[in-house]
Each structure stands twice: as C-alpha cells, then as structure tokens.
Automatic annotation (TrEMBL):
NCBIfam families according to UniProt: NrdG2
A single GO molecular function term of this UniProt record: 4 iron, 4 sulfur cluster binding
Known cofactor(s): [4Fe-4S] cluster
Taxonomy of the source species: Bacteria, Bacillati, Actinomycetota, Actinomycetes, Mycobacteriales
Pfam families tied to this protein: Radical_SAM
Keywords associated with the record: 4Fe-4S, Iron, Iron-sulfur, Metal-binding, S-adenosyl-L-methionine
Protein name from the UniProt record: Anaerobic ribonucleoside-triphosphate reductase activating protein
Residue span, Radical SAM core domain: 44-158
Length: 294
C-alpha cells in the first residue's frame, strides 16, 4: 500500500524556461551625464529602427537583427536580465534610466520594460524619433516616462525635406531631389513627427527636449526657421529645450553618407553653426523655449 501510494505521486511540473526579455537590448552605458541632461543615468540601447538618417552614428542598430558586438561599454551586459541586474547594483548612484536606440517605440514590450525600471525605483527617460505616434501615445498614457528627448529632423510641415533626412541614407536616394524618390508612407514621416510632438507637449509639459541634428547644406539646416516658428506656436508657458546639435562623423555608414552627400564639416561650418543657434535664440526670445547649441 505504501509503495503503491509512492508511485501515485504526480511528477513535478517542468521548470519554467527563462523569461522572455521585453525588449531587444543591443548595449548598455552604465553611467551617462549627456543622455538625460542634468541627470546621471544608465542608458540602454534597443535594436531596430525604421528610418535611415544619413548622419546616424549607430547604423548597426537600424536592422532588427542584433548587431555584432553590441553598443556601449556595459562590460558585456547586453541582455535585459543583465541590465536589470546592473540596475540593482546602481541604486543610489543613478538618477534614472534612458531608453534609446534605434527606435524604442517600435517594440511592443517597451511599456513592460519601463514599468520594470519604475518598480526598481528609477525614473525613466525616453529618446524617440516620434515615428510611431500611436505607440508613443500608449507609452505616455499607460507607462508615464518622466522625460522625453524627441528628435525633430527637419521642419515636419515640409514632407519632402523630412523624408530626405529620415530616408536620406537609404540606397534608393542616389541623386537629385523630388517627391518621386519617396513613397507616400515615407512622405508621411513629418506628419507623424508633428503628431508626436503635440502629443508629448500636451501630456507632459515641461519635461521635453526637442533635438535637431544639422550638418552643412542639409534639409535640417534649411528647416531651422520653420522649426523655430512651430515651437514658438506650441510652446505655451511650460519650459521647453531645443537642442541644435552638430552631426558627428564617427560611426556614420560610408554608404549612407555617400547616398545623401553627407559631410559633417566644411570650411566655415563652425561659424555658420554658431550663427544658426544665435538666430534660433533670437526668434524664440519671447517664448518658453530655451535654445542650446551642442
């Protein structure tokens, strides 16, 4: 009887496998003072981006498949579990965590990842291009990051100029200009950006930095007056920072640079850049927008 009862004991359930990571981590910077201005943060890079900006200095993050070697200096901790473990050891040393990419909002698990970071006791900053306004809206409503760094790549009301930046590094833009180089979806990028900008401004006023990256003779440079005008219209009374920053040559794909005739410098560019920043400050002097040059 006793022996029979022992044989009747059900087998234990199989051990659960490792939890699926909510987002694809491509790399980690354990300490950063630049990714969230004024705060010390850990930065996590997510894999994948739908756009192909010619000045992108992380082109290995554009594809959805992981890039070889990862990004950042996180001592090999390029997994979500490794990043969470890192945060556990950084309590009291960091102000927050920044999700960047790539484009974080393309991942369905971003909200869960933000929630997990909040549970660990960290504030969350988010870098985004605004290319998925619906997904961004869900993040703002349901997961509440404390700060947003939003890329505004050109005047979003100029559909062709915006597409020239967002898709300027792609192979199909080989020469010339004109809307015949872009599909309707690509020409809609500026409109998506504008929706995202207005959504963030309404949802979290005072916690937004707009960033525009410029390089010599680019659509971004040509669009600065329009961006200034747009920011003046939506600024209201809540403070907003507009960072106008030079494109960096390091890490840029040679093929992307050639496709868009991209160059990060030329004679006189430093002086011209200072003048662009000064003009933007003058335009927005009476608004709540603070212009900084980087």
């Amino acid at each position: 009887m006793l022996l029979d009862s022992l044989y009747d004991v059900p087998a234990p359930p199989p051990s659960p496998g490792p939890a699926v990571a909510p987002v694809p981590v491509a790399g980690v910077v354990p300490f950063s003072s630049v990714d969230w201005p004024g705060r010390l943060a850990a930065t996590v890079f997510l894999q994948g981006c739908p756009w192909r900006c010619p000045y992108c200095h992380n082109p290995g993050l554009q594809a959805t498949a992981p890039c070889e070697g990862g990004v950042g200096d996180g001592a090999g901790e390029v997994s979500w579990a490794g990043f969470v473990d890192l945060l556990g050891r950084r309590r009291g040393l960091l102000d927050g965590v920044v999700f960047t990419g790539g484009e974080p909002t393309m991942h369905r698990g971003l909200g869960a990842a933000i929630d997990e970071v909040h549970v660990l006791g960290f504030d969350v900053g988010l870098h985004t291009s605004g290319c998925y306004p619906e997904a961004l809206g869900r993040i703002l409503d349901d997961h509440r990051p404390e700060w947003i760094g939003l890329d505004v790549k050109a005047d979003p009301r100029d559909a062709e100029a915006y597409a020239e930046v967002a898709y300027g590094g792609a192979d199909f833009v080989s020469s010339g200009h004109g809307t015949d180089h872009f599909t309707g979806a690509q020409l809609a990028t500026g409109g998506k950006e504008l929706r995202s900008l207005r959504m963030i401004r309404e949802s979290m006023p005072g916690r937004l930095e707009v960033r525009t990256t410029v390089w010599p003779d680019s659509p971004a440079v040509a669009g600065l007056p329009g961006i200034a005008e747009m920011l003046a219209e939506i600024s209201g009374v809540a403070p907003l920072t507009w960072a106008i920053q030079k494109a960096r040559p390091d890490g840029v794909s040679p093929d992307a640079a050639a496709a868009a005739s991209f160059r990060a410098d030329r004679p006189g560019w430093a002086t011209e850049f200072d003048g662009l920043v000064a003009d933007a400050r003058a335009t927005l002097r009476d608004s709540a927008v603070t212009v900084v040059g980087r």
